[in-house]
Amino acid sequence: MNHLNFKMRNVFLFILLFLSAAAAQNLKTKNNPAPLIPMPDSVEWLKGKFLLSDQTNFTCQPGKLQSYFVDRVNELIGINLKANTRSQARSRIIFNIDGSLIGRGKEFYSLSVSENKIEITALTEEGLFRGSQTLFQLISPSAKSKKDGSPVDITCCKIIDKPKFKWRGLNLDCARHFMSKDFIKRYIDIISYYKMNVLHLHLTDDQGWRIEIKKYPKLTQIGAWRKEADGSTYEGFYTQDDIKEIVAYAQSRFVTIVPEIEMPGHCLAALASYPENSCTGGPFEVINKWGVFDDVYCAGKDSTFIFLESILDEVIKLFPGKYIHIGGDEVPKDRWSKCPRCQARIKAEGLKDEEGLQSYFVKRISNYLNLKGKEVIGWDEILQGGLADGAIVESWQGMNGAALAAKQKHYTISSTYAYTYLSSDVENLDLRIAYSFEPVPKDIPNDQTKFVMGGEASLWTEETLQNEVDGKLFPRLLALSEVFWCAAGKKDYDEFHSRVQNSYEDLKALGIQYGQEAKAISFSTSYDELKKEFIVNVTPGQKEIDIRYTLDGSEPNLSSLSYIGPIEATDQTELKIYAFLNGSFTGKKIELSFEDNKAIKAKLSLANRYNDMYMACGENTLIDGIRGSNDFHDGLWQGFNGVDFEGVIDLGSEKAISEVSPRFLQDMKAWIFMPASVEIALSNDGVNYFRKKIIENNIPQNDSLVVLKDFQASFNNDKARYIKVIGRGIKKCPPWHTGAGQDAWLFIDEIEVK
């Protein structure tokens, strides 16, 4: 063999080995025999199958785990396992506790499946339980759908696994819309299946009090009822026996139930029941609107604290876990600033202001709970005025709260709303965004990362009924379950997405009515200068989506024009595009109006980049001739957070300019404010600007309505190539606002040039 042939042979062998390794890796990921979520630390798929049947013997130390596993297998596939028999079964499932795994953590497990034996080994029963959920995911969806007790094949494999974070939670808001006891138990099973271990129940708010307190019966006699706008009555609460049943059920699934009793704000249901705990004395009613309301618990009365401590005494007896959530978020200070008792408290305690009073309130309650052996959790507003000793910060407004807590050596839970609030529309928080979340704040020192306990998803139910919960949570909760379990370096969205596609049958088999994973419709536009027409290209978010549209402003339905290619439109067109899934409307309504102007086909340069959550259609969105609606989620508005808007339009050549009109939006409740002023100037060289015009804002910041405003500047047909637009934002939410001190948003949708 000559040297060249020998060399070529080595190259061939190298390529063969490389392709074989790539194929093996592919087998471990995209071509998984079972789409495991969250993905375990290590998975090795092997040849062969284990046959699970009613002849399979199950060996486990007698107790709750043994009875759970036998019952759950029967629930899922209808097979009745034989537990701890002495027969020489041909197939066996064995659960082992191994004390030598002490350094691996209480949730570590190994799972081995061979043709005759399944073995799960762990340090604790909790680890065995986590491994059992992986085993359940190895069972095919068809077997779970049939539930007929037929033998089931399970692919042979070796799995080694443990979680990245110890706190992997879901927060269900049962206050705004009540969820039944059985529904809560169902969700304990669902989150267990995906290895989440905390169920946070938001039990009290302005719109309802949902837990029986025997010392204060009016909390449920009055506080659990509200009169809706249509005159109907909405009701619901958990008796103490209900709570005990839920807690016991969760304990058998190694899920911690964390109750949230809101204070000092979000308490109108309690004040409607016992108005003497307010600053004004009422009367109040359980409110049927959503938002933040001025009336809060009076911090100047000792009787308020006696009331709350008595409530917490009963809560403590019902929830054996070590955590009690006390809210602490969105507390208006207006009542306190005018209340003589609260002002006297501020003076007597040497507090600086009302923020200091909130800190006093939280610290007093926290100290009481600490004496009872409980740890307090609060939303990140509890940082205001100083943290209570040992308080855990749940950071929802961003990652800053988590970073500040860790810096102060306080434990923290990352629940940034932009990634974890699954009540948010999928158009704005899709599967990919949820999966991109990282619970550890960037750039905190390594010695502070240990204070990050993990993360939590939230479902706030202002607009969500019990029968709509599945569609809100899934499939996005799959992304967060993996985020909370896996190390950041092991995440791969494309590979994860392929597992999600293969998980839909499993979700169906589990009875989960999942919703969308991404926005129903995406669109892009271009402009044909010769025809003076706008070209609209539309893309469905999922394969099954049917796109229908009209050109005359009428509402599309299943009989309307079907989208099969680009849509041509003029400035006279009123284009409406709707998506339908399984015969029903889904997603956002796309409604577009067009305006021909000189900025179309120009170039726009931005000094500050828009926030990726509100990027609309990219760089030239603001000069594409398409105006947004009064819904800033419509995909046409660009959002800038905590910075000014500054853009320069290059028209390509000098043109006569008579008018420049950028449009901004204000939605104070969403922390979006008008710019304080807008500056518009012209230039021929992009350096020296003339005809500078400044338009002051005249929209009050506290206007509760959604407002659109064109900041129009008129010119005398001045010739210019460049147009500079600066919207000077207020940067931070005003002191009176619920987001006081937090970054304010600036939203712009179109810069029209005539």
What does this protein look like?
The protein is of the alpha/beta class and 754 residues long. The protein is 25% helix and 29% strand. The strands form 7 sheets. An 8-stranded parallel barrel has the order 8-9-14-15-16-17-18-19, surrounded by 5 helices. Strands 27, 29, 30, 31, 32, 33, 34 and 35 form an 8-stranded antiparallel sheet that branches. A 7-stranded mixed sheet has the order 1-7-5-6-4-2-3, covered by helices on one side. β12 and β13 (233-235) form a beta hairpin. The longest helix has 26 residues, at 3-28. Mean pLDDT is 92; it is low at 1-30.
Features:
eight-stranded antiparallel β-sheet, eight-stranded parallel β-barrel, 754 residues, 25% helix, alpha/beta, globular
| Spatial gap, N to C terminus | 78 Å
Radius of gyration over alpha carbons? Answer: 30 Å
**Overall pLDDT metric:** 92
Number of strands: 35
Shape: globular
Instruction: Please summarize the sheet with the most strands.
Output: 8 strands, parallel, barrel
Strand proportion, as a percent range, falls in 25-35%
Q: Enumerate the strands of the largest sheet in spatial order, edge to edge or round the barrel.
A: 8-9-14-15-16-17-18-19
Q: Into which percent range does the helicity of residues fall?
A: 25-40%
Structural class: alpha/beta
The low-confidence runs, each spanning 5 or more residues with pLDDT under 50, are: 1-30
Assembly level: single chain
Number of DSSP helical runs: 19
